[in-house]
Hints:
It contains twelve helices and no strands. It is mainly α. The longest helix has 25 residues, at 2-26.
Amino acid sequence: MRSQNLIRLSGAVALCALSLGAAHAATGGEPAAVVQVDVAPCLAAAAADDMDKAGSACASVIDNEKTAKADLVKALVARGALYARHDQVDRAIADDSRALQLDPTLADLFNARGELWLKKGDKPKAVQDFGAALKIDPNHEKAKANHKAMARELERIGAQMAVAGKPSFNCRSAARAVEKAICANRELADLDREIFASNARVIREARNPAEAKALQRAQDEFIARRNAGFGRPGYDLKKAMQERLQRINGVDGY
Length: 254
């Protein structure tokens, strides 16, 4: 019984050996070679700022399923930087985003994409990317500078939003009809606040006390005319306020 089992086992081993030999012969006696994707032409073309060559060279790497992950990231970063230099912002963001999905540890790339979001005017996404870069590398100089600048900008926008639609005076204590009209109209309220701020600026920048006094007198006279003219036939409050703002700031707006 045991000898029969050995015979069967020997036959199976022989059959397996024959099968392997046939497969070996069919492939010329050598195992199939794994073709590696060469990323070098893509990187070279991108570094040379050659859009035409980089377009094809990088696509052959990025679109190849056999490309190693590390090489794919390199190609995406290189092509993304090339797109950014040529102001193709959406394409650059797309490549950077794909690269960051593959490797979310690239602080430089987060900062670069943040700057691209800033070009598109998407400040919240820009701040988010600058913050992500700093989480990875707290000492990243560019990301620190960008994040600080954006934080100030967002703070300024927030301050503007907080006072939007509010005049320079307290509407709760508004007694005159013209003041109540300004409080009831967001555009007029913004105009009033701008007039007040611009007048304060020119007085602050006056060359001497006499000039500052004359500037304030002009503002007081405008307020008096506004109060007296409101409600009369033909009086346009909005137009009067716009003209006053332009007179303070000058033709160039400052």
